[in-house]
Design a protein that fits this description.
It is built from three helices and nine strands. By secondary structure, the protein is α+β, with helices and mostly antiparallel strands.
């Protein structure tokens, strides 16, 4: 039996800071950056400067450089930063106005197999049926770090996190956040 080794490479991402995962001691553990193509959960090194927590604000544009590790046998990619730079507004890319609601489903096996996939498919079908699918962008992401409360999803721009999402709740969520 051959053990598959992870593929490691360097990455640089410039994106909008959507969310922070902060530990009880005030240190940032993960950043959620979004670009036009993808969203990235990026692990922040333990030796980060404490002032980084004070500099980062949701909605800021950030340039992150680090190492990307592709674990082929698990089918996932992990990002770990070694350089985090808050971009000044004059340099930052001006985002296009996005009036779409974004729904992000965790597609890791725990969430996906416990109903996340069914909820995602039902949401798409319900949006098509109501004729409002062009108002909503549905994305999948890596682990949202709430595996014990699977399945998980996030609704943006409201930044509402939902855990233990059930497919039958999709209609109610559309009424509450989209319609």
């Amino acid at each position: 039996m051959v053990a598959l080794q992870p593929l490691v490479s360097e990455f640089t991402v410039v994106g909008k800071l959507e969310d922070l995962n902060i530990k009880s001691n005030g240190r940032i553990k993960y950043l959620l950056l979004s670009t036009e193509q993808e969203e990235y959960w990026i692990k922040v090194p333990k030796e980060q400067p404490l002032k980084l927590s004070q500099q980062l604000q949701l909605g800021a544009w950030v340039k992150v450089t680090g190492m990307r590790k592709r674990e082929i046998h698990k089918g996932q990619v992990k990002y770990k930063a070694y350089s985090i730079q808050v971009l000044p507004t004059s340099i930052a890319k001006v985002p296009t106005v996005n009036t779409k609601v974004r729904v992000i489903f965790c597609q890791e096996s725990t969430c996906w197999n416990k109903g996340g996939k069914a909820a995602c498919q039902l949401l798409k079908a319900e949006l098509e049926q109501r004729g409002i699918s062009e108002q909503v962008e549905i994305k999948t992401s890596g682990c949202l770090k709430k595996c014990k409360q699977a399945p998980n999803m996030i609704l943006l721009p409201d930044r509402v996190n939902y855990s233990r999402v059930q497919p039958q709740e999709m209609s109610e969520l559309i009424d509450k956040h989209i319609s």
